[in-house]
Design goal:
The strands form eight sheets. Strands 6-5-9-3-2-12-15-14 form an eight-stranded mixed beta sheet, with no helix packed on it. The chain is globular and about 85 Å long. Helix 1 crosses helix 2, helix 3 packs across helix 5 and helix 16 runs antiparallel to helix 17. It has about 850 residues and is α+β, with helices and mostly antiparallel strands. Strand 20 and strand 21 form a beta hairpin. It is built from 26 helices and 31 strands. It binds phenylalanine (PHE) and zinc ion (ZN). Zinc ion (ZN) binds next to helix 3.
C-alpha cells in the first residue's frame, strides 16, 4: 500500500521552487466551491524542470501557465499530486479547481461546521483546497477573495488585513484580505458565515491599534467575554515577558463546533473549537475557564513562536509546540496560582505523556520518522517538549533566557527553522554549552533517577544513578544532562540550602560538607526535570510538613498515598501513618485550591504505570477502600470543611471563590465514598442550589455513581435544561460514559442514538466514546465487550474522520503491559481493526505499532 509509506527526517530536501505570492479566489456555493489559485513562482538553484504540487481529492478544471491554457499533455495528475511539466525559471501559474466542503467529514481543508464554512490546514490540509507546495518551509504572501451569498454568509474572513468588499447584483458579495507576512500554507484560513461578534480593541506597547473580534454562533455573544479578556491579557504578557507585539491591524477568532483539536493559530484568524471560547458560570466549569485562558494564550503566542518563526519540516513540530506550551504554562502561572499550575501541568504530563513514553508508540520530541504526521500532535511533542524548554530556562536563568529568546527572534524572524537553530540561539546568547543537552530531542522514554544517600562525619553524600530505558527498537540510549533542583532540610524542619545540581552522567556523586546531622532531602523541586525518582528512604510525612517547596510537598503526599495503596494491594494493610498525615493536611491553613490537590489520591494511571503487569481491578478496589477509610475517619472534619466553603450562590471567578469550590468539591467527593443518605442529600442539594456548573457537574457525577434513582432525576433535569446546547451536553455524555455503575456500556450504546449525539462532531465522540475508552472499569471489563465496542467504533469512525479514529485508538496503547487475560481479549480486537482493508494510515500506524 503506497499510502502506508514511512517518511524520514534524514530524507529532507530543500524546496526547489519559491512561491513569491499566492492570490486565491473562493466562490462558495451550497453544493461545491470553486477555487482559483494564481501563484508567482521562481525556480531555486539546480531545480528540476517539472514542478510537483501536493493535491488531494481535487477536481481540476483548468490550468494556465503564463496566461496560456495547458492541455493535458503538459501535466500529470497523481494520487496525491499535480505535476506541471517543463516549467520556465520564473512563471505564473493559475489553477482552477472544484471542491466539496459540504461532504468533508475529515475536517481538514475547507469544510462546514454547521452552517459555517471554515478551514483547518495544519499540517497538510491545504492540499485539499488547491494544488500547492504544501510544506512549512515554502512561505508566501497571500491575498484572498471570498465570495458567497450575502444573506447566508454576511461575514467573510481570511488572514491579514481587510482590503475591500464588493456587493454583486445576484445577492452575492465578496471580501478581499491581504496578509503582508509571508507564511506557509498550513497557516492559511478562511471563514464564511452568519456569525455573531464581540468586538474590542488593544493598543500595543508601541501605540498601534488592533481591532479584536471574536465570532461565534448568534446568541452566544455573551459567552465570549472571558475569551476576550484572556486575549488582551495574553497580548500584554507577551509584550512584557518576551518583548513581542502583535503585527496586524486585526486579530480575529472564530468559534466553531466541529473541530478536530483545541484550536488553530492561523495568522490573524484563529479558528477555535467552541469548547475553548464559550463560557459563562452557568455553563462552564472553573476548569473550562482556565482552559480557555490558556488556549487563547497558546494560539496568540504562536504568532511569534510558530508563525513569524515557523518549522522547516514537521519533524520540527516541537520547535513551535513545546515552546508555545511552555509560554502558555508560564502565562497561566503568572496570572493564577503558580503552585497549582505547576502541579496540574505535571499531573497532565504523567497521566498522558509518561504513559505514551512507556508504550510502543513512544517517540522523541523530535521524531525521526512517521507515517501520518497527524499522529504526532502528541503529549510528547507538546508537553514533554515544554518540559525541555523549561529545563533550558532553568539552566540559563531568567535573564539569559530572555537574551536568548531575543536573539532567536532577531535571527530567525520570517524563516522556517529547526530545533537546532533554537538551541543555537539559547547557547550563543547565554554562553552555556548545550551540546550534551541535545539528547532530550532525540531519545524517547522516561529516565529513572535512583537516589542513594549517606552521612558520615558531617558529610552528606548523594549518589544519583540514571537508568535510561532502551528505545522502542531496542537500541541502547545515552544518559541525560539536566538540572536537578534540590533542597536540604534540617531535623527541625529548617531549610539548610537549595541548589540546582547539573546531572550529566550515568552515575554521579554530590557532596555537602559541614552538616550537623543527616539532612532531609527535598528532590526535584518544582519538577525541574521530567524524570522518575526512585528513593528508598521514606520521609514523606516530614516533607509534607516541612518542605517549603509546594511541589515537593504535593509530591510527598502523592508518593505516600501511592505506596500506601500498593501495600494495601499486597497485604491488605493500611498504613496508619498515612492516615495521620492525611489528617494533618486537612487541618492545614493553606491556599484552598492547593489544599484540594494535596487531598487528592493518586490517579489509576499513576498506579498502573508502576505495575509490571497491569491489572486494574485491584487498583480501583484499593482506591475505593482507602477513600472509604479516610471518609469515615475524618467525616466530621470533612463535613466542616464542606460547610465552611460551600457558597452555592457565589459564582465569582476570583482565586478565593474558585479555591472554595475546589476544596468543597474535593471534600464532597471523598465523603461520597460513604455512599450514605447524608452524602446523597448533600449532592442533591448542591445540584439544585448552586449557580455554577463547577458545582453541578460534581454533584451529578457523584449521584450518577452512587444512586441510580437520584442520579436519574438530576440527569434528566440537566438534559432538559441543556439539550439545545451541544457544548454543555458534552458534560452529560462524559459523566455517563465515565460512570462506574453497572450497565454503563449499555447506556453508552443507547446514548449513541440520542438526538443530541452526532458522530460527525469530534467533541461529542470524545465525550461519549473517548471517555468510555478511559473508563478503566468498563473498558477493560473481562467479558471483552468494552474492547469490542471501542474497536467497532474505531472502524466506523475511521470512514468519517481518520484523525478522530486514531485518537480513540490510543486507548489501546497499554496493550503490551496488560495481564494475559485482558491482553488476549484486546489482541482479538486489535487484529480485527488491522484486518479492515480500507483502514486509514492514521489508524494503521497506531495499531500496527501497538501490535509490534
Ligand atoms: N497547532 C495547533 C495548536 O497547537 C494544533 C492543531 C494541530 C490544530 C492540527 C488543528 C490541527 O495550537
Ligand atoms: Zn500549538
Amino acid at each position: 500500500m503506497s499510502q502506508m509509506k514511512t517518511i524520514y527526517l534524514k530524507d529532507y530536501k530543500k524546496p526547489e521552487f519559491k512561491i513569491n505570492s499566492c492570490e486565491l479566489h473562493f466562490d462558495l456555493f451550497e453544493e461545491f466551491t470553486t477555487v482559483i489559485n494564481i501563484m508567482s513562482i521562481n525556480k531555486l538553484e539546480k531545480s528540476e524542470n517539472d514542478i510537483r504540487l501536493d493535491a488531494m481529492d481535487l477536481e481540476l478544471i483548468e490550468i494556465y501557465l503564463n496566461d496560456l491554457k495547458l492541455n493535458d499533455t503538459r501535466y500529470i495528475i497523481g494520487e496525491d499530486s499535480l505535476t506541471i511539466l517543463n516549467v520556465p525559471e520564473s512563471f505564473s501559474l493559475k489553477i482552477k479547481n472544484k471542491i466539496y466542503p459540504q461532504n468533508n467529514t475529515e475536517l481538514e481543508g475547507l469544510y462546514k461546521s454547521g452552517s459555517i464554512f471554515c478551514t483547518q490546514n495544519e499540517p497538510e490540509g491545504f492540499r485539499r483546497i488547491t494544488p500547492y507546495l504544501d510544506r512549512p518551509d515554502v512561505m508566501s504572501v497571500f491575498t484572498t477573495t471570498v465570495i458567497a451569498q450575502k444573506d447566508k454568509y454576511p461575514i467573510l474572513l481570511s488572514n491579514g488585513n481587510k482590503q475591500n468588499c464588493h456587493d454583486f447584483m445576484n445577492g452575492r458579495h465578496g471580501t478581499t484580505w491581504h496578509d503582508p507576512h509571508p507564511k506557509p500554507s498550513y497557516l492559511f484560513a478562511l471563514v464564511a458565515g452568519d456569525l455573531g461578534c464581540v468586538n474590542d480593541e488593544y493598543t500595543t506597547a508601541s501605540g498601534e491599534h488592533v481591532e479584536l473580534n471574536i465570532y461565534c454562533d448568534k446568541g452566544n455573544e455573551s459567552q465570549c467575554s472571558h475569551a476576550m479578556k484572556s486575549l488582551k491579557e495574553s497580548m500584554a504578557w507577551d509584550e512584557e515577558k518576551y518583548g513581542r507585539e502583535y503585527d496586524l491591524e486585526i486579530y480575529n477568532i472564530v468559534a466553531v463546533d466541529s473541530f478536530n483539536m483545541g484550536a488553530m493559530e492561523n495568522k490573524g484568524l484563529n479558528i477555535f473549537n467552541s469548547h475553548y471560547v464559550l463560557a459563562d458560570e452557568d455553563r462552564a466549569t472553573d476548569a473550562n475557564f482556565m482552559g480557555i485562558q490558556s488556549v487563547i494564550a497558546h494560539e496568540y503566542f504562536h504568532n511569534w513562536t510558530g508563525n513569524r518563526i515557523t518549522c522547516r519540516d514537521w519533524f520540527q513540530l516541537t520547535l513551535k509546540e513545546g515552546l508555545t506550551v511552555f509560554r502558555d504554562q508560564s502565562f497561566s502561572a503568572d496570572l493564577n496560582s503558580r503552585e497549582v499550575q505547576r502541579i496540574e501541568d505535571v499531573k497532565g504530563l504523567r497521566d498522558r505523556q509518561f504513559v505514551e513514553d512507556a508504550s510502543p508508540t513512544a517517540h522523541p520530541i523530535q521524531p525521526n520518522s512517521y507515517m501520518s504526521i497527524n499522529n504526532f500532535y502528541t503529549s510528547t511533542v507538546y508537553e514533554k517538549g515544554a518540559e525541555i524548554i523549561r529545563m533550558i530556562h532553568t539552566l540559563l536563568g531568567e535573564e539569559n533566557y530572555r537574551k536568548a529568546t531575543d536573539l532567536y527572534f532577531d535571527t530567525f524572524d520570517g524563516q522556517a527553522v529547526r530545533t537546532d537553530d533554537f538551541l543555537w540561539a539559547m547557547s550563543k546568547a547565554s554562553r552555556i554549552d548545550l551540546t550534551e543537552f541535545e539528547t532530550w530531542y532525540h531519545q524517547s522514554g522516561t529516565p529513572t533517577l535512583k537516589v542513594e544517600e549517606s552521612f558520615h562525619n558531617g558529610i552528606y553524600k548523594l549518589t544519583l544513578t540514571q537508568r535510561v530505558p532502551n528505545a522502542v527498537d531496542g537500541s541502547v540510549q545515552k544518559p541525560y544532562y539536566f538540572p536537578l533542583k534540590i533542597g536540604l532540610i534540617g531535623l527541625t524542619g529548617k531549610e539548610i540550602l537549595e541548589r540546582v545540581l547539573i546531572v550529566s552522567k550515568e552515575k554521579e556523586e554530590f557532596v555537602f560538607e559541614g552538616l550537623n546531622s543527616k539532612p532531609y532531602l527535598s528532590i526535584n523541586r518544582d519538577f525541574s526535570a521530567p524524570v522518575k525518582i526512585q528513593q528508598s528512604t521514606k520521609e514523606y510525612a516530614f516533607l509534607m510538613k516541612h518542605d517549603k517547596n509546594s511541589f515537593v510537598r504535593y509530591e510527598s503526599a502523592q508518593s505516600f498515598a501511592t505506596e500506601t495503596l500498593e501495600e494495601m494491594m499486597e497485604s491488605g494493610n493500611i498504613d496508619e501513618e498515612f492516615l495521620e498525615a492525611y489528617g494533618y493536611i486537612l487541618n492545614l491553613d493553606i491556599e484552598l485550591s492547593y489544599k484540594a490537590l494535596l487531598l487528592e489520591l493518586p490517579s489509576v494511571s499513576t498506579l498502573m504505570q508502576r505495575q509490571d503487569v497491569v491489572d486494574f481491578v485491584p487498583i480501583y478496589l484499593a482506591k475505593d477502600r482507602l477513600e472509604r477509610e479516610l471518609a469515615a475517619l475524618y467525616k466530621d472534619k470533612l463535613q466542616e470543611l464542606y460547610k465552611q466553603n460551600h457558597k452555592p450562590k457565589n459564582k465569582k471567578l476570583d482565586a478565593i471563590s474558585m479555591g472554595q469550590r475546589a476544596i468543597k468539591n474535593r471534600v464532597l467527593r471523598i465523603l461520597s465514598a460513604l455512599e450514605n443518605r447524608e452524602v446523597i442529600d448533600m449532592a442533591r442539594e448542591q445540584y439544585k442550589e448552586s449557580l455554577t456548573m463547577t458545582d453541578r457537574v460534581v454533584a451529578l457525577d457523584i449521584l450518577e455513581n452512587i444512586t441510580s434513582e437520584e442520579g436519574e432525576v438530576a440527569l434528566n433535569d440537566f438534559y432538559n435544561r441543556y439539550k439545545d446546547d451541544t457544548l454543555v451536553m458534552n458534560k452529560y455524555f462524559a459523566i455517563l460514559a465515565a460512570s462506574h455503575r453497572n450497565g454503563t456500556l449499555e447506556r453508552v450504546i443507547v446514548l449513541e442514538n440520542d438526538e443530541v449525539y452526532d458522530e460527525k462532531v469530534p467533541n461529542l465522540v470524545r465525550s461519549l466514546i473517548g471517555v468510555f475508552a478511559r473508563n478503566y472499569k468498563h473498558f477493560h471489563a473481562i467479558d471483552g465487550r468494552g474492547y469490542s465496542f471501542v474497536a467497532h467504533k474505531i472502524i466506523e469512525i475511521d470512514k468519517i474522520n481518520p484523525q478522530m479514529a486514531s485518537g480513540l485508538a490510543s486507548a489501546f496503547k497499554i496493550y503490551e503491559r496488560l495481564n494475559n487475560e485482558n491482553k488476549e481479549l484486546m489482541k482479538k480486537e486489535l487484529d480485527r481493526v488491522l484486518a479492515v482493508p480500507s483502514l486509514s494510515k492514521n489508524v494503521y500506524e497506531i495499531i500496527s505499532k501497538i501490535l509490534k
